Structure formats: structure tokens, C-alpha cells
Amino acid sequence: QMQLVESGGGLVQTGGSLNLSCTASGRTFSTMGWFRQAPGKEREFVARIRWTSDSTLYADSVKGRFTISRDSAKKTVFLQMNSLKPEDTAVYYCAAAIRVLATTAAEYFDAWGQGTQVTVSS
User: Does the pLDDT at position 34 exceed 90?
Assistant: First the structure.
């Protein structure tokens, strides 16, 4: 199966920035994305990118602040997070799907990373 390794989380003050990365290995994929989950909350969609077309999609809560991108040669996806807010505090998970997805539902992704903690202090 596909393996995903993510990194880049940490502690940052309100208004600060972080850059998450996720490197994939194993079978071919078509879609990669980021989800996040705060304590006691459901896992929510953050952003996704279609590998071939480079088409991107963002949750309304992060539009204008977060940017998802990819490096095809390294099979790596990034999430640049700017203007961070305390509400962004969560464990961030990288995900990959074999299919080109038209949905943001987590159940359609085939592989997940271990998660990286992002904490934004007020």
C-alpha cells in the first residue's frame, strides 16, 4: 500500500506561518489532500490537489490563508499556512487517493499519514 510521511508542525503565535510537507511512496495516486482534527471534533477537510492537473480546492475556513502545492519529482505535497489563528490548532493529516476524486469526503482517500500537531497560541 501507499505510505505517507508528513512533517512541519509546531507551535506558532497568532498571525504566524508554518509549512507542512508530505512525501508519498508506493503505488500511484491521483489526488492528495490535507485534513485536520481538533480534540473532541470531527476530522475536517482542509485542502486537496489533483496531481496531474494541479487543480486545487480549499475549505472556506482557510481560503486566502493556506496554499496547497506539489513537487511531482519528489512525490511531495505541501501546505503553506499563513495568518494562523487559534482556531487552526489541530492535528493535520496528509491523505492520498488512487482515484481522481470529485468529493472531499475522507472515506474516499486510500492512505493517511500519522499526523503532525499544529498549535497556534493566542
Answer: yes
